[in-house]
């Protein structure tokens, strides 16, 4: 699978308006689907469904009556969700659609999350797999370090890699730190940004093109307007566009490789188990990364990043480089600038309404909870 060719300028500006561009729908359990109507849209090539969410619920239920009832309810929901997932896969493939599954990454054991994902999705060789990372806050989502462990575990078990689904800000952060995240920065990118143009935001320094661009979701769709409507789906269903036509997308699916990555990044060795742990029964083998010698490009990236921070400390702030909200004035800017020195990304919450980065699935799920 090769995605090294740079995308055309038209691929970054409303490519869904070009009738030869393939489209993909992604959904989760709360999205109702009328498959007969959906099949009438011949531009829809694939269907990606949410599979697992973090770790599975605990099998044994403890505590008081309320805790036990809640625990059992979570297991019931888990079972129903998995049954729906399998049913949708059968229907989608019967209609000639490519199938995919994604895992919503949460804080917690990344190896067990990868195992949970693969056990839940039970992927066929031609099923796309995706790791959904919604942000870089490790208290809310899987840390990027753990995400690298997750990716390695998926590769160990099935011999191929997942696609990376994330928003523009997280993608840029990974691109800026590609020397640190050697695997994440080389996964095919499923890019989420709900704007008509992304040429000024897409991290071209690392990815030359996207595998998929999620351009329509709850953030920019409703009854009144939406960039694209898919028959038989809710008004706010997630819709994605590929920078290629239907035939090419089918050939590239399921994007199981890496983008120009040295083999050294995959090197790892198993950590020895104690005799007691081995005799006790089933144990999870943990792998330790083997650090590859840094390349000249990686050393330059580290030095350049340090020099930029040192140089910027002596510069006057550039006002037009600061995101502008409806109520963001000089007082707010001074407060933000002071906080920025201690905690990058501090003003995110202030502008979430202006440029939302959460997907429809996580937003709706949070509202229901």
What does this structure look like?
With 369 residues, the protein is of the alpha/beta class. The protein has helices spanning 35-38, 65-94, 110-121, 144-158, 168-176, 246-252, 275-280, 296-312, 330-340, 348-351, 360-368, and strands at 23-27, 44-53, 98-104, 128-132, 163-167, 189-192, 212-216, 238-241, 268-270, 287-289. Strands 1-2-3-4-5-6-7-8 form an eight-stranded mixed beta barrel, surrounded by four helices. A two-stranded antiparallel ribbon has the order 9-10. The longest helix is centred in the N-terminal third of the chain and has 30 residues, at 65-94. Residues 317-324, 340-344 and 350-358 have low confidence and may be disordered.
SSE order and pairing:
Blueprint: E1 23-27, H1 35-38, E2 44-53, H2 65-94, E3 98-104, H3 110-121, E4 128-132, H4 144-158, E5 163-167, H5 168-176, E6 189-192, E7 212-216, E8 238-241, H6 246-252, E9 268-270, H7 275-280, E10 287-289, H8 296-312, H9 330-340, H10 348-351, H11 360-368
Parallel strand pairs: 1-2, 2-3, 3-4, 4-5, 5-6, 6-7
Antiparallel strand pairs: 1-8, 7-8, 9-10
Helix pairs in contact: 3-4
Strand content: 5-15%
Biggest beta-sheet profile: 8 strands, mixed, barrel
User: How far do the termini sit from each other?
Assistant: 39 Å
Q: Over the alpha carbons, how many angstroms does the gyration radius reach?
A: 22 Å
Following the backbone from N to C, one meets helices and strands in this order, namely EHEHEHEHEHEEEHEHEHHHH
Q: Total number of helical segments?
A: 11
Please tell me what the overall shape is. Answer: globular
Name the strands of the widest sheet in spatial order: 1-2-3-4-5-6-7-8
Q: Regions with pLDDT < 50 over 5+ consecutive residues?
A: 317-324, 340-344, 350-358
Q: Report the strand count.
A: 10
Structural class: alpha/beta
Helix content: 25-40%
Overall mean pLDDT score?
Answer: 82
């Amino acid at each position: 699978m090769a995605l090294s060719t740079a995308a055309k300028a038209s691929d970054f500006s409303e490519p869904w308006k070009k009738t030869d561009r393939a489209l993909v729908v992604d959904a989760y359990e709360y999205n109702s689907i009328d498959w007969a109507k959906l099949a009438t849209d011949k531009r829809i090539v694939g269907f990606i469904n949410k599979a697992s969410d973090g770790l599975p619920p605990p099998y044994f239920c403890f505590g008081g009556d309320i805790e036990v009832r809640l625990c059992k309810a979570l297991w019931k929901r888990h079972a129903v969700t998995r049954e729906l997932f399998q049913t949708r896969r059968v229907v989608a493939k019967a209609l000639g659609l490519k199938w995919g599954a994604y895992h919503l990454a949460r804080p917690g054991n990344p190896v067990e999350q990868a195992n949970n994902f693969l056990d839940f999705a039970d992927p066929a060789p031609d099923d796309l797999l995706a790791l959904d990372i919604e942000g870089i806050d490790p208290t809310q989502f899987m840390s990027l370090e753990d995400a690298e462990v997750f990716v390695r575990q998926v590769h160990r078990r099935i011999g191929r890699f997942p696609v990376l689904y994330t928003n523009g800000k997280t993608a840029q952060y990974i691109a800026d730190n590609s020397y640190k995240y050697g695997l994440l920065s080389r996964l095919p990118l499923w890019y989420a940004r709900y704007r008509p143009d992304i040429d000024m935001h897409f991290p071209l320094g690392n990815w030359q093109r996207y595998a998929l661009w999620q351009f329509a979701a709850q953030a920019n769709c409703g009854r009144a307007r939406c960039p694209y409507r898919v028959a038989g789906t809710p008004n706010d269903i997630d819709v994605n566009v590929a920078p290629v036509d239907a035939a090419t997308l089918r050939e590239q699916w399921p994007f199981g490789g890496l983008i120009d990555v040295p083999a050294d990044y995959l090197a790892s060795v198993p950590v020895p188990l104690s005799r007691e742990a081995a005799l006790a029964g089933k144990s999870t083998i943990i792998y330790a990364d083997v650090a590859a010698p840094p390349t000249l490009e990686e050393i330059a990236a580290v030095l350049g990043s340090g020099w930029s921070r040192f140089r910027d400390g002596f510069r006057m702030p550039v006002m037009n480089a600061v995101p502008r909200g409806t109520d963001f004035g000089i007082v707010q800017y001074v407060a933000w600038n002071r906080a920025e020195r201690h905690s990058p990304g501090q003003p995110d919450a202030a502008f979430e309404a202006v440029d939302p980065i959460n997907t429809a699935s996580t937003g709706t799920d949070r509202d229901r909870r």
